[in-house]
Amino acid sequence: MAAPKFHSLNALLTSNGSQLKLLTVEAQRLVGLRDAVRRQLPPALASHCLGAELEAGTLVIYMDSAATATPVRYQHRELLEKFATDNLRCGTLRVQVLPEPPVPPTAKAMAQTLSNAVRQILEITAAEIGEGPLRHSLQRLARNRNPRI
Length: 149
Known about the structure:
- The chain is an alpha/beta fold.
- The protein folds into two domains: 17-97, GMP Synthetase, Chain A, domain 3 (2-Layer Sandwich), CATH 3.30.300; 113-147, no CATH class.
- It is built from seven helices and five strands, in the order αααββααββααβ.
- The protein has helices at residues 9-14, 19-40, 43-46, 66-74, 76-85, 116-128, 133-144, and strands spanning 49-55, 58-63, 92-97, 113-114, 146-147.
- Strands 1-2-3 form a three-stranded mixed sheet.
- Strand 1 and strand 2 (58-63) form a beta hairpin.
- Helix 6 (116-128) runs antiparallel to helix 7 (133-144).
């Protein structure tokens, strides 16, 4: 069996006919389009532009929040004129808000345990308190926490 032939990452990304080359070219086109859109947006909004795509004469601008998308929607006519001067030929403009990425699940909290000394203090305190809800709470706390080993 012949050993696989390894190439540099740059060679893989730029080899003719490669799917990776097509993806690389498309990614570069989208980055260029996003940069062109950012140049035409007001400075306060430019950094909030996450991306853009142009299909069938419709320019879709992706913003990071509704608060930054709303001013862009209000300025759509002026922006279409600016895009025309930057050779972005589009007839309509849509602004969309990208949803927040899902929050990764957090690690489960470890069960809290009581040392034997604390458990004894709770039991002694509960025994010395008269009958009532505090006594029952202290007894339940001492009983339900796993002892440390």
